Amino acid sequence: MLLNRFPYAAGHLMVVPFAHLGRLHELDAETRTELMARVAQSAEILDATFACDGLNIGANLGKAAGAGFADHLHFHVVPRWSGDVNFMTSIGEIRVIPTHIEHTYDRLLPAFAELHAR
């Protein structure tokens, strides 16, 4: 799990497999299973840590779908709150992130450290 360097919201994570492949069907079954387990764990941690109202979870597979790296798939896990999207993104072409990425890291680190210790 990684923090997104250019987040859409505070806590925006990416879940990335070690395999450098661009399509889900190219991953072996064990890797797909672990990838989805990590997505679920990330969602649980974000729910608990940020008390979000919902989550956007998705993947862009391939350059035409918006993937920055065509041969390296990853999932985005983005916390959402009611009313968190306003005119700034659509009209102002700017993102408003209320929490600095280093503060987000500090908030999430204990939860992920506990997960790793299990």
How does this structure look, described?
By secondary structure, the chain is of the alpha+beta class. The chain has one domain: 2-Layer Sandwich (HIT family, subunit A), CATH 3.30.428.10. Helix content is 36%, strand content 14%. A four-stranded antiparallel sheet has the order 1-2-4-3. The relative contact order is 0.23.
Describe the protein's topology.
Layout: E1 2-3, E2 13-15, H1 29-50, E3 54-59, E4 75-80, H2 87-90, H3 101-117
Antiparallel strand pairs: 1-2, 2-4, 3-4
Beta strands, count: 4
- How far apart the termini lie comes to 16 Å
CATH architecture assignment name? 2-Layer Sandwich
Q: Would you give the CATH topology? A: HIT family, subunit A
Indicate the overall shape.
Answer: globular
Number of domains: 1
Structural class computed from helices and strand pairing: alpha+beta
Strand order of the biggest β-sheet: 1-2-4-3
The number of helices is 3
Considering the chains and any ligands shown, give keywords for the structure.
single chain, 118 residues, 36% helix, HIT family, subunit A
Short description:
This protein has three helices and four strands; from the N terminus they run ββαββαα. With 118 residues, the protein is α+β, with helices and mostly antiparallel strands.
